[in-house]
Design a protein that fits this description.
623 residues, alpha/beta, three-stranded parallel β-sheet, 11% strand, binds beta-D-glucopyranose
Length: 623
């Protein structure tokens, strides 16, 4: 149970050799430079700075005339940035069309790139297919599947007109107490390298100008998953002065060789796959903000790796460089190599300050030209500058939005990512003809918990967050025979007499630093639900829905079978496939599973003699 699975490692190695160097974009971004140069020569300083400015849709569209006055080159919807008209496919598409039409009414009519966090499907939009989060996809070890998911995600994003996602996240989380652990494919940089590249290939396709492609964004560069835990007030966050454990946006204390070894591979492969954009991270590296580091942004990424696309700052990240001097922070970041600033509400401030910095000679014109060249390269590559092509949304794509075909792919991802960790007395697969199955636990009938954070809301939400999917309870009811009775109680009561009990427990949704935790043991209601089903004297299957491994050492003896599905998304049927024998489990852990909190951080990069997990990286049973 403890041994590192050498077979799995070999498998990954073989795949990586096989996928060696398949660049996704047929053309280099710099091959558009002749057209870019021509356009650049017609642009005023204001028009150039506008290309570098990315406000949130709400603030900028809420101020009529600002899109034109500031020559805005890009707009985003953050985690809580629904259309004013409400959240529907129609309203999102109308919102995109409106922002695009405004951009096209400027002197040079340069279309905007509209960016959004489509991080597990088009995850802000009601009715979209929500794929499993990356931690679960890591358990599939299947780059072909991840590429297909990228393709379908791109298609659903394009259905709303939007052409840019802030994904894939190629973070390599080293400490599962971090609230962003689930955004990473794995603690293993090698798996991240392979799946990150596959995701870029899927989203961008073989040609960025394909109207079904979107431009990808590898994030968060670099070392976001390598920060060390702090117990202190968290500066600059809503939780303000509260003393607590936090890792998010912290400091990554590593020498450059280790930083490169663990945290760079995902960017090397993304750049090789032709990724159009990269997002520098909030965190610091040995005390220096990534967004302020010329070494990281210009020397390593652009000069050494040859990245030809553009860098987009994280949400208000430039402000953090020196909270007392915004103008100075802009100067540092742009001179370090930042090309576009994500400035949700403060876009006027950014615009005016950057303009002044250029006029004062503090930011050289050559740097502005380089930034705008990089942004325009991506726009040309995507066919945005093609006058014969409409830049408005293609509403024909609405037909396949959230379609059964798209859901079938998500279901496949769910069954391939569910990891079987214990199966005593061959409890699984459960017979579809069992007389009665009792379900329990807070996540048995909760699509919001299945989907986790970054789903409709920034923080996600428990409950019925989005239409069209299948909860685990619904999936089980649909899978069993007509004669089988399926009963359910939240707390596990009433399980007596059932053939088997299935208890679905774990975490409620969270995102970013809000999910940093010093305690990953199961909550009392989960413990009670398991105990109640156990008391009924029937076989107990425990299914964990969570953004990371949790501490289950104490409850494991009560479970005859134990499975981890992580955050599977909307298609609960994939779990039923594994429970009832329609799919023999193949999922392998993408993270090491600790016995206790005091072992953390625990991962395959720590010294071998300290590595003593409950379930090792790569572990996973079948039947
Ligand atoms: C997150 C990014 C995200 C951005 C836009 C930031 O807070 O760190 O991952 O892309 O917001 O929503
Ligand atoms: C936004 C997110 C963003 C976060 C940054 C939220 O209000 O909706 O997109 O990532 O703030 O802290």
């Amino acid at each position: 149970m403890k041994s590192y699975a050498p077979a799995a490692a070999l498998f990954v190695l073989l795949i990586s050799i096989q996928l060696g160097c398949v660049p996704s974009t047929s053309k280099k971004l710099s091959s558009y430079d002749p057209q870019v140069k021509e356009l650049l020569s017609q642009m005023t300083l204001e028009e150039k700075i506008g290309q570098m400015t990315q406000p949130e849709q709400g603030p900028v569209l809420g101020n009529p005339g600002d899109m034109q006055k500031y020559f805005i080159g890009s707009v985003l919807s953050g985690g809580d940035s629904d259309p004013a008209e409400g959240n529907s496919l129609q309203a999102w598409t109308d919102l995109y069309d409106r922002a695009q039409s405004e951009a096209m009414s400027t002197r040079l009519a340069i279309p905007i790139l509209y960016g959004i966090d489509a991080v597990h499907g088009h995850s802000n939009v009601l009715g979209a297919v929500m794929f499993p989060h990356n931690i679960a996809l890591g358990c599939t070890r299947d780059p072909v599947l991840v590429e297909k998911i990228g393709r379908i995600t791109a298609e659903e994003v394009r259905a709303t007109g939007i052409q840019w996602t802030f994904a894939p996240c190629v973070t390599v989380p080293q400490d599962i107490r971090w609230g962003r652990t689930y955004e990473g494919f794995s603690e293993d940089q090698e798996l991240v390298r392979i799946l990150g590249e596959a995701a870029v290939r899927g989203m961008q396709g073989t040609d960025l100008s394909n109207p079904l492609s979107i431009v990808a964004c590898a994030k968060h560069y670099i070392g976001d998953g390598g920060t060390s835990a702090n117990i202190a007030p968290r500066p600059g966050m809503p939780s303000g002065g509260k003393v607590r454990l936090w890792l998010d946006q912290g400091d990554t204390k590593l020498d450059e060789a280790e930083l490169r070894r663990i945290h760079l591979p995902g960017y090397i492969s993304a750049v090789r796959a032709g990724v159009g954009t990269i997002m520098p991270s909030y965190n610091t590296w040995n005390g220096v903000r990534c967004s302020a580091s010329k070494r990281l942004l210009t020397e390593i990424l652009k000069e050494e790796l040859g990245f030809e696309g553009f860098l987009i700052s994280d949400y208000n990240a430039i402000n953090q460089i020196n909270p007392k001097d915004y103008k100075g922070s802009i100067e540092i970041s742009i001179n370090a190599g930042m090309d576009m600033a994500m400035v949700p509400t403060g876009y006027r401030d950014f615009f005016n300050n950057l303009k002044a910095l250029v006029e004062e000679g503090r930011v050289p014109m050559s740097r502005i030209d380089d930034a705008v060249t990089r942004i325009l390269r991506v726009k040309f590559a995507m066919g945005l500058m093609d006058k014969n092509r409409s830049q408005l949304a293609d509403r024909k794509l609405h037909q396949s939005f959230g379609s059964p075909e798209h859901r079938a792919l998500a279901r496949e991802a769910v069954r391939k990512s569910t990891v079987l960790l214990r199966n005593d007395n061959r409890i699984l697969p459960i017979s579809k003809k069992a007389a009665r199955i009792h379900l329990a636990g807070k996540s048995a009938d909760d699509i919001g918990n299945q989907c986790g954070g970054w789903t409709i809301k920034w923080q996600g939400q428990s409950g019925n967050v989005t239409p069209g999917g299948t909860t685990i309870l619904q999936a089980i009811k649909a899978a069993v025979s007509r004669e089988t009775q399926v009963t359910f109680s939240l707390d596990g009561s009433g399980a007596e007499g059932a053939s088997v009990g299935i208890v679905v427990v774990g975490e409620r949704p969270y995102a970013e630093g809000i999910g940093d935790r010093s305690d990953l043991t199961l909550g009392q209601e989960d413990v009670t639900a398991i105990a109640n089903v156990k008391k009924a004297g029937i076989p107990v299957v425990v299914l964990l829905i969570s953004g990371r491994p949790m501490i289950v050492t104490d409850i494991l003896p009560q479970a005859d079978a134990f499975l981890a599905a992580f955050l599977p998304g909307t298609e609960g049927q994939g779990i039923a496939d594994v429970l009832f024998g329609d799919y023999r489990p193949t999922g392998k852990l993408s993270f090491s599973w600790p016995k206790s909190m005091d072992q953390l951080p625990l991962n395959i990069n720590i010294p071998k003699d300290k590595y003593d997990p409950l379930f090792a990286y790569g572990y996973g049973l079948s039947y």
